[in-house]
Amino acid sequence: MKTVSTTNAPAAIGPYAQGIVVNNMFYSSGQIPLTASGELVEGDIEIQTNQVFENLKAVLAAAGSSLNQVVKTTVFMKDMNDFAIMNEVYASHFGEHKPARSAVEVARLPKDVKVEIEVIALVK
């Protein structure tokens, strides 16, 4: 196992890694809308989802991967009524690439954010 860490995404705020690579597969921890310096990005689901994707891109790059290599995502949302907007932002980041996905509404997320996303990706 190889631990993945980058200063281009928020540091882990607990006893976990930003991600782990095992046998050419990258497993990310959930990313929430914090800046790389750890500041919470306020705003609607669109703004927060865009920040989450910036964090995912950073940890994927540190792992030697990218959004185009993602095979599975899990999206945790505070309010499923925000799904359509989150989905538009999600689609804009993935483009033609369409990994498998689960999306669930949860009672609460860290720091009371609106969205958290984790990914599993290939590493070349």
List keywords for this structure.
single chain, 124 residues, alpha+beta, six-stranded mixed sheet, 6 strands, 27% strand, globular
Range of strand content: 25-35%
CA gyration radius, whole angstroms: 13 Å
Question: Which structural class do the helices and strands define?
Answer: alpha+beta
The counted number of beta strands is: 6
Indicate the low-confidence ranges by residue numbers. none
Q: If you average the pLDDT, what whole number results?
A: 97
Strand order within the widest sheet? 1-2-3-6-4-5
In angstroms, what separates the terminal alpha carbons?
15 Å
Question: What order do the SSEs take from the amino end to the carboxyl end, as H and E?
Answer: EEEHEHEE
